[in-house]
From TrEMBL:
Keywords: Disulfide bond, Electron transport, Redox-active center, Transport. Residues 1-105 form the Thioredoxin domain. This is Thioredoxin. Pfam families: Thioredoxin. It comes from Yaniella flava. Belongs to the thioredoxin family. The keyword Acyltransferase does not apply. It comes from the Bacteria. The keyword Electron transport applies. InterPro entries: Thioredoxin (IPR005746), Thioredoxin-like_sf (IPR036249), Thioredoxin_domain (IPR013766).
């Protein structure tokens, strides 16, 4: 599957409607982004079951701000509508492959349980 451009309008639906979504936050002026782009594109061809999204931070400034993007490139991984990885900096093909295997190997029942526990704790401390 090739990479998909995501926007404010398509971002949330893409995350909700797919099991695994990787998101590359980038900008045209960013040298490391340009170095990472062909790696990301090539790996996307090997994984039909994963959505490889790209978000141009210049074009989607509100979305980038809402996601707290302060450095690019930033790579995020979502699984079952949960952010499970977020890291700035370009990575190589081997590292991206390892990340994909780690995301696939997550015990999502446990991850959802941890998310619920964290949400409950934050609600308690807010009261």
């Amino acid at each position: 599957m090739a990479t998909t451009d995501l926007t404010q309008e398509s971002f949330e639906k893409t995350i909700q409607d797919n099991d695994i979504v990787l998101v590359d936050w980038w900008a045209d002026w960013c040298g490391p982004c340009k170095m990472f782009a062909p790696v990301y594109e090539e790996v996307s061809q090997e994984h039909d079951d994963i959505v490889f999204g790209k978000i141009d931070t210049e074009d989607q400034q509100q979305l980038a701000a809402a996601a707290g993007i302060s450095s690019i490139p930033t790579l995020m991984a979502f699984r079952e509508n949960v952010l499970v990885f977020s890291q700035p900096g370009a990575i190589n093909q081997q590292q991206l492959g390892q990340l994909i295997e780690q995301v696939r190997g997550l015990d999502m029942e446990d991850v959802h349980k941890q998310v619920e526990e964290a949400r409950a704790q934050s609600e308690q401390s807010a009261n």
